[in-house]
Amino acid sequence: MSTQNNIQVLVIDDDVSLGRVIYYELKQRGFQVTTAQSGEEGLNVYRDQHFDVVLTDLRMEGLSGMDVLQRILDEDPEAVVIIMTAYGTMDNAMKAVKMGAADYITKPFATDQLAFVVEKSLRMKSLEQSTTNLRQQILERSRFENMIGESKPMEEVYKTGEKVALSDAPVLLLGETGTGKEELAKAIHHNGYRSENPFVPVNCGSIPPNLMESELFGHEKGAFTGADRRHIGSFEQANGGTVFLDEIAELPHHVQVKLLRVLQEHEIQRVGGEEIIELDIRVIAATNQNLDQMVEEGTFREDLYYRLNVVSITLPPLRDRNGDIDLLAEHFLNEFSGNANLRLSPEVYELLHDYSFPGNVRELRNAIQRAAVMTDAEEIQVEDLPSKIRHTRESPVGRTPDFQDMTLDEIERKAIVQALERTGGNQTQAAKQLGIPRHVLIYRLKKYDIEV
Asked: Among 69, 142, 158, 378, which residue carries the largest CB count within 10 Å?
């Protein structure tokens, strides 16, 4: 969107005095303003130069504001047109909005209000264009056939994903951080009948617990301190489509109760509101935590777990799909490199296969992006990779430890450190790999003074 000091505004009004007032008030606020005193003149001016927004009176001699709106939208469906109307013609103003007007403003109006409506309309148009572009990018990237990997574990993921995409059942995606759970969720959404409707991702781990309910379900104006306007939550935004709840294990207990009701009753209430809002949505959830264990510990509701876990898909870590590393690396190289001849050296391929990738596909993607940026040659070399990967062969993560002359405690400590490195510090997954309960792992961390 243009900055305010070069936003071009066309004002069309046969009331010369009002047009002059609008001209000076908008000029004082930094807008570039052109005026026209009839619908015919306004259309001619509009066709001669570019305008970011058009303000047109509804009632004018000759061509009315509705005529101006229709002709501008016929020529440019993306145009931002705001209708100025008297109170007695509100019905026509609403018709104009249905025809495609960005907004309307009722006379008499304060100049502050006019400037606010202009800026809001431009922001909304910019947001719509960004959303349209993003949806198209997601659609192009999220088909199952565009997911990368030919290994047997990934074939199982595709097979289950394609089946579940045709249903409306809740899906629970499991797997370590960086394995591609959100990409799989997008693919399930875009291969189902809701594909033309919104896909709304929510990272439950990044929202403060006291704001979680408001972010998910929305709130009414005045619902709490700072709620100066109504907020539409993620579930309502996703109506007709899919809401993706990433890091579902981080959901506070009181919000788990609310979510269970949504899944059971298909309705919500905004915080501070009384209206019951019916929903038609699909819920896909994801976590890298052990929900079975959390249910046993009482930190995750059992009834919610079974509601979410109608179908579960576990994405394999990259170390368990080593055969896909070459495909993924070449895909990311094509994505990030502007040089069609850029390639990976044989030593780089060998090193990538030796590395355990605790950050999984995300870590590989970042490594290839860095290498593509760092190299000036036609072939990426080992020194172009991140130091963590370069030092694989010297690192205990990348080789079998030598147990000679080590005490049992030293061996145990080394095994714990390696498990934590492989899982990116995830204690639940590390305990699972070591074959011990999580509380035993926590005891060993304190015993050996291991910092996570």
From this structure: 69
